[in-house]
Amino acid sequence: MEGPPKSFPLFWPCGEEDRLTTDPATVQKFICWLRNKENRAQYRRPCNRTADGPGSRPCVCEFHVADDVSIEIIESTFFKAGLGYRIFPSALLLTDWLVQYREAVAGRSVLELGAGLGLPALAAASPALGARRVVLSDYMPELLRTLDSAARLNCAAQVRERILRVKFLDWAEGAAKMDRSRGAGGGNVAPMSQGEFPSVGGEKFDFIFAADVLYEPEYADWLPRVIAKHSTHTPTQDCSPATCAFMTIAPTRDMAIMTAFTNNLRATGMHVRVTSATEPEANRECIMRWPGADPQTPERPGQPCTLAAEEGEDCLIIQGWWLERGE
């Protein structure tokens, strides 16, 4: 199968270079390749890997995701940060969506769950996208420190003080704690600890988003509760990007987890729509299905659904809105 263009710098290992730059056309070309060619959960080869050892430096990558949006990302290592150590395609797809639908974040308060390296949230905080308040959240100390450094790289102090925060958030929120090293995707990660960063606490947000966070069964139970707790629950009659309360993009690596998450999210009272991220916008149809229902039947509140997608062959967009009563 044809791979990405050899000139695409995200596929180059860092070597002795500490900065890689892309341009908007190249990022778009890569995203189109993801959608039309392979749709893998990971890149074909390691990118921007940071060597461990004395004197090693993190790799800083500059993502030009639009003509007016350029974000610098600091990558970590799998050993220190688990799966949050690098940018994965779902984060690129989510950032691309935010750039296309800027009304989703403009003037709104936003929270990124499991931010990792924070590309989508940092893009939302850019002047071009214009979010009113942005919180990048994670629970791993290494990632929180990396996010804080990236925030300093991308935002002037006065802007950072006004709109951008890095905060601790534990999705379990009182549930029995899982083995965090497993939940973080491996690596010799530090124990879950709030450390020097403030907690998200009881803050509410207009729009909550996440990229590729559905990889443990527990998350299908925990995340809907976290989303419901931290959402402003602003009612709407219009299921548009400007009124979207939650969104995630994730590869279909485990349909049981994704289906459970979707049904648990609906159980909170949220209206949910699931579409393919790899289909052109004009061709996207909701892929939620109800037992015995015609594919075109509208959502049935309270009745569990299944997702009509093949495991490992797609990336899904899961969106949610709080509809006004009677809708």
Mean pLDDT: 77
Strand percentage lies at 15-25%
- Helix content percent band: 25-40%
- The secondary-structure class comes to alpha/beta
Order of helices and strands: EHEEHHEHEHHEHEHEEHEEEE
Overall geometry comes to globular
Rg value: 19 Å
Largest sheet: number of strands, sense, barrel closure: 8 strands, mixed
Low-confidence stretches: 1-21, 37-51, 177-191
In DSSP terms, counting alpha (H) and pi (I) runs of 4 or more, how many helices?
9
Q: Compute the separation of the termini in Å.
A: 46 Å
Count the strands? Answer: 13
What distinguishing features does this structure have?
327 residues; alpha/beta; 9 helices; three-stranded mixed β-sheet
